[in-house]
Amino acid sequence: DQxxxxxxxxxxxxxxxxxxxxxxxxxxxxxxxxxxxxxxAEGPTFLxxxxxxxxxxxxxxxxxxxxxxxxxxxxxxxxxxxxxxAVYFCAASSTQxxxxxxxxxxxxxxTVNP
Amino acid sequence: xAGVSQSPRYKVAKRGQDVALRCDPISxxxxxxxxxxxxxxxxxxxxxxxxxxxxxxxxxxxxxxFAERPEGSVSTLKIQRTQQEDSAVYLCASSLLxxxxxxxxxxxxxxxxxx
Lengths: 114, 115
Known about the structure:
The complex is a heterodimer of chains A (114) and B (115). Chain A has no helices and 11 strands. With 114 residues, chain A is mainly beta. Chain A is globular and about 45 Å long. Classes of the chains: A mainly beta (114), B mainly beta (115). Chains A and B meet through strand 4, strand 5, strand 9 and strand 10 of A and strand 4, strand 5, strand 9 and strand 10 of B.
């Protein structure tokens, strides 16, 4: 059973427009969420995170929104740039379970067209 | 500063061979994690160390997989008698502290191909 789901395998947007990547989770024990970006043949690169005590966190062009009641989070990239083209992974963890492991979704491939 | 490094970057093994994958975490990072990423999937947790103590090995798929971090810095993931289903990218990550949540920083991974 997938505890973290990214239902869109791919997304294509025009340069300068907004990219919205979505993520759903099922485990109510998750209280910390992260987004990673991954280029081919490289490891995931940390982008932005959010704790369950907040509903929004912003860092430059990247904003993450958390809706705890819906068990949903989204990553907004504004404005999108061609260099943002990569696979984006949503990840979640629980600080209450002892282990700090991350549970990942399957990823969404973002393509930003010039 | 230096990030997480992993070696080798690529490894080809014949079925039945033993392999050892190395991870050098960011200096001073207390926590170290191993993940396995199959093609088209997200990374999946294998095991977790806090300093030299292996606190969670619930993700190791079989007793052929073994990990160690004897001095609380470098870690080795060993796979004995490799099988074709072991083919994947093995990712190592480290975080500064324990008792989370703290951001995990990933290395470039080792791509293992078992023939």
